[in-house]
Amino acid sequence: MGKEKKFLPLGSICVVEGNNKKVMIIARALAVKVRDKTYYFDYGASLYPEGMIGDSLIYFNQDNIAEIIHEGYKDEENKEMEMNITKWIDQCPFPKGDPLNLK
């Protein structure tokens, strides 16, 4: 297995590069089909404080985070989930998506 990667917990609030709007992380390690190709992203988020609008998520990666406003709740279950996410990413057949080049 590769280097262990730390993920922000669910409920974390952050600002993504190039934006000034806060988002709340509601999903981690997502496989997403964009047009005819599948990519994975570290995070899926909704706008904060609005929440989900329709069924659209905002996809981004750890290196797209400009500022962490608040870290969500962490416990042993979260630590175990992080390990499972890391294992999935190590075996993931999809390339990592670049949210800045999805248009």
From TrEMBL:
InterPro entries: DUF4176. This is DUF4176 domain-containing protein. It comes from Listeria booriae.
